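Sequence, structure tokens reproduced for absentees:
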Amino acid sequence: MSKTALVTGASSGIGEATALKLQSLGYTVYGAARRTDRLQNLASKGIRPLAMDVTSDESMQAGVERVITDTGRVDVLVNNAGYGSYGAVEDVPLSEGRYQFEVNVFGAMRLAQLVLPHMRAQKSGSIINVTSMGGKIHTPLGGWYHGTKFALEALSDCLRLETKPFGIDVVVIEPGGIATEWGSIAADGLRKASADGAYAEQADAVATSMTSEANAKRMSSPQVIADAIGKAVTARKPKTRYAAGFGARPMITLRSVLSDRGFDSFISRATGLPRT
């Protein structure tokens, strides 16, 4: 019997590459996104498109029910849907902060809740939570985004302990810089939130850093994350974390050895913040 995988945020970037990677490993793959018209490329290659809004409980329930109805099982859940909400903590409306958590954290955890009864019945399964090196480090004007990724790291650790007796693996994937639309979207949001007012100079520096040509050239292909996920789901005993992509391992290591203020100084210089 073919194993089944559900990948969220599958319309482009990491999600699209992951769906194709899992298919190549023999999985029946459902690629989920809010807009199924953006899944037509995957559908043409045999990925099953699934309309899903990870901020809608009804949508998530319907999506998981369809997978189970079609295949009778769910072996891998890849929680990849997410985006980066940037702006000074003071500037970003709480409604946007809440939405950032709804997409990046609560959607992922709700899907975990929905698939776990089936995985427990099978006595097997893998939940793959795509966080970020941003779940281990901090950058200026990224408070709401980093908050979601730190939260997802902690929830994953707890979930790993809880599900181990049932033969279920919980794995964290920590991408570094990846060549996707993420940076430009985050920069646009940053400018919208903090282009004027007290944080304008910082916002300009950080947004410019995010979208610079030099920065773009250093980005890794989404395929490196898809390959890491492939390793995680095929390993007999997967690692708890896989850091991959530009800067991920060095930055996480640097954060672990520098003091808080030492890292503050480093990341301020790296993002071009104005010096006072």
Observations:
- The first strand starts at residue 4 and ends at 7.
- The first helix runs from residue 13 to 24.
- The chain has one domain: 4-270.
